[in-house]
Amino acid sequence: MNAQLFATFLLAAVILQLTPGPGMLFIVAQGMAGGIRAGRAAACGTASGMLVHTAAVSVGLAAALQAIPAAMQVLRLAGAAYLLWLAVRSFRAATPLVDASGAPARDPFGTVYLRGLINNLTNPKIMLFYVAFLPQFVDPSLGRLPLQLFLLGLTMLALGLAVDLTVGGSAGHVGRFLRRHAAANRWLNRLAGAVYGLLAALLVVSAAA
Length: 209
Fold this sequence. Notes:
By secondary structure, the protein is mainly α.
């Protein structure tokens, strides 16, 4: 790879990963509601989704998806429906999030991981962002363009995972502190539901645009 282009890419990628977005909000909501383990599970699920996007961009599938607007609309609406389900689930949570010891009631790691994966994969904007962003740092004179794109995507994934694991763990710590109070418990569920609802609305708006 071109060393100068890669250095520029690293700087841009770090700035982008530190900028809060829908994916980070989702991870924060999971961590606040489910604890440190849930926040990190959501981060791992999100990273797995990014790996799929990276592979798809490298072989040109993103361009094909962009050429079929109907497929993108279906994907967005499916993602919005899933997020709405999570929002309703949070608002209707009837059981306490803590037991007598103050420990959170946790969903299995795999369940939260799958939520992160689905949330990421049903957002086609991520793949289209890769299509627009990654090629700016490819050097055609070096050849092997799919490999260059894949390496750039993996670098982006690694940076994102590091940031998201930190954010998810930190949100879990805050959530664990707040869970010691019954009123905070209820508000944590409401906050998570509000975040999921907001993300769903953003997907619906983008589908209608």
